[in-house]
Amino acid sequence: MAQVKVCGITNEEDALYAVKLGAAALGFIFYSGSPRYIEPLAAREIMQKLPPHITKVGVFVNESAAEIKSVMKYCGLDFIQLHGDETAAFCRRLPAKKIIKAVSLKEIDDVENACEYKVAALLADSRHAGLYGGTGMAADWELAQKLSVQKPLILSGGLNQKNIRQAMETVAPRAVDINSGVEISPGRKDPDKMARLMRIVEKVNIATTSKEKIFTKE
Known about the structure:
By secondary structure, this protein is of the alpha/beta class.
């Protein structure tokens, strides 16, 4: 059964509706270069309104370890998602069981390199024109599938109601990360798109063998 993480949350309305639909985790982007950026204060205010079972994920891009730890403590984050050029050595400066490392898979060597990260999970995404995710472009599902049999994997990259079923059946990830595919505009979710996509995920999950969950609360 694949869990769902709705990322790029910028407002309470979208957050609570995603929870109502069954999302296991919500992602808050603390990278100022993103059109979905949210300040830690605003994010914390939203997080305080969430049910206790919801996993809170903070997304960072090439940020210092000190700043990441500071925001993590301030907001009460459950996971930190490193979405930049962070090395395996950098990741060792942070609690491994709390890290999700985003990787871009373009060739088979990228799968081997991704396995060097000692983290809780890897997230397969697609980079384009120097952008760190949120491009609306699909990841390489064939390479993502190869990675999913070696590491706990979250599949991201342009997932929407038209391709989510095929993506899940091809890759068999432990979780899917939804963002631009359910938006009206960057940072503003479309309730109907979210609801339709979640219904598809539920149907696929019914016929899927259960896997160990990534998003769990200690």
